[in-house]
Amino acid sequence: MKLVIAVIHSDDAGPCSAALSDAGFVCTRFTTSGGFLQKGNATLITGVDDGRVDEVVGLLRVHARQRSEYMNPVSPLAEPAEFFVPFPVEVEVGGATVFVVDVERFEKL
C-alpha cells in the first residue's frame, strides 16, 4: 500500500477530489498555503494499493493544470541594493507536486 500526497492549486482541489472520488478513491483534503508565492493550496492525501498509484497520478495530471498568473513582488526590506522589480511578474502556478510513500501499516477502525 502507498500513501499519495498531492499539493495542488486551490482552484483545482474540487475537480481533483471529484475525479478521485468518481474513480473510487477516498481522499482527505487540507487547506494549505505555499511558501514562495503565499498562495492558497490544497493538499490531498489518499491511501491506495500499489497497482493503482499510476491511476491516481494520472487523474491528478489531468485535473491539476498549470496556469500563468501575475504576482506583485514584495519589496526587499533587508538590503536597499537588492534587485527589485516594482511591477507585476508572470509566474507559472498550478499543476501538482506529488509524493508517493510506502505505508508500513494501515488500519481502518
* Mean pLDDT reading: 84
Secondary structure class reads alpha+beta
What share of the residues lie within helices? Answer: 10-25%
Q: What summary fits the major beta sheet? A: 4 strands, antiparallel
Strand content: 35-45%
What is the CATH architecture term?
A: 2-Layer Sandwich
Question: In angstroms, what is the radius of gyration?
Answer: 17 Å
Q: Looking at the structure, what is the overall shape? A: elongated
Count of strand segments:
6
Query: What is the CATH class designation?
Result: Alpha Beta
Integer tally of domains: 1
Strand order of the largest sheet: 2-3-1-6
Query: Tally the helices: what do you get?
Result: 2
Q: Can you tell me the CATH topology?
A: Alpha-Beta Plaits
Uncertain regions: pLDDT < 50 for 5+ in a row? Answer: none
First and last CA, distance: 17 Å
Order of helices and strands: EHEEHEEE
Write up what this structure looks like.
- With 109 residues, the protein is an alpha+beta fold.
- The chain has a single domain (2-73, 82-102), classed as Alpha-Beta Plaits (2-Layer Sandwich).
- It is built from 2 helices and 6 strands; from the N terminus they run βαββαβββ.
- The strands form 2 sheets. It has a 4-stranded antiparallel beta sheet with strand order 2-3-1-6, with helices on one face. The chain has a two-stranded antiparallel sheet with strand order 4-5.
- A hairpin with a 6-residue loop joins strand 2 (28-33) and strand 3.
- The longest helix has 11 residues, at 53-63.
- The two termini are 17 Å apart.
- The model has no long low-confidence stretch (mean pLDDT 84).
